[in-house]
Amino acid sequence: MKFIIQAGGLFGALAVALGAFGAHALKGMLEASGRMDTFETAVKYQFYHALAMVLVGLLLQRAGEDAVKLLGWSGHAFIFGVLIFSGSLYAICFTGITKFGATAPIGGLLLIVGWVLLIMAASKL
């Protein structure tokens, strides 16, 4: 529970920092490579799911036994989903190697799984 909230806080702080870094220090490079939209998508998805992780962690504090397992899996799906989805987009932006995009759907699927598990857990709260 504490780990998921901490991960959400860390991912949220990094999303703000990366967003600011991209808007200022990297703007020219991202625009020149045509990757500004890709970078913004990575930051947005990271930030949205950072908030979701905090929510899951808070729900874990009041969840009954039936929901705890589902919430734990949900939080971990969000963590790995962000690492793979946003991470692959960041890798494309920083390296120009578009093959990193092949892993983005795996991360996206994990993010979807996280939301489905959250829905399932909510039915047990």
From TrEMBL:
Entry's localization field: Membrane
Keywords, in A-Z order: Membrane, Transmembrane, Transmembrane helix
Taxonomic superkingdom: Bacteria
Recorded GO CC terms: plasma membrane
Protein's membrane topology: Multi-pass membrane protein
Membrane-spanning segments: 46-64, 76-97, 103-122
InterPro entries: DUF423
Pfam family, one: DUF423
Family membership noted in the UniProt record: Belongs to the UPF0382 family.
UniProt-recorded name of the protein: Uncharacterized membrane protein YgdD, TMEM256/DUF423 family
Native source organism of the sequence: Dyadobacter koreensis
Organism placement in taxonomy: Bacteria, Pseudomonadati, Bacteroidota, Cytophagia, Cytophagales
